[in-house]
Amino acid sequence: MLAPYKKYLLERWNNGFHNTTKLWQEIQQQGYQGSYATVAGYTRRLRDAQELKTGEKNPNQPLPKVFEPEKISVDRTSSGGADFKQTRRTK
User: Nearest to residue 69, comparing CAs of 53, 87, 82?
Assistant: First the structure.
């Protein structure tokens, strides 16, 4: 349910806006009907990716941009093993 709003959330996050409550309110105004907990879980993953502490507003150095994770597919081989291939998620 959050998928249609992830691009917007990532854009806001990468522009330095990290207030989960306000982000949740903003996407509600765009039609999001999911829970705050879902948005909070997503922003927690973004925060972890940038190694931010909860509530940290002004880190000492510029933050790296975060992106949606790449999709991993598994090719099963005839020998019973698995061959993992990483592919970039497409829109």
Answer: 87
Phi, psi of 11 (to 5 degrees): -60, -50
**What's the full length of the chain, in residues?**
91
Grouping H, G, I as helix, E, B as strand and the rest as coil, residue 2 is coil
* Residue pLDDT tens, the chain, 91 long: 899 999 999 999 989 899 999 999 999 999 999 999 999 999 999 888 888 776 665 555 566 666 676 554 445 455 554 444 444 444 4
Model confidence, pTM: 0.64
Computed from CA positions of residues 15, 2, 39, 73, in that sequence, does the dihedral angle turn out positive or negative? negative
Q: How far apart are CA 24 and CA 32, in angstroms?
A: 8
51: tokens are 């190694």
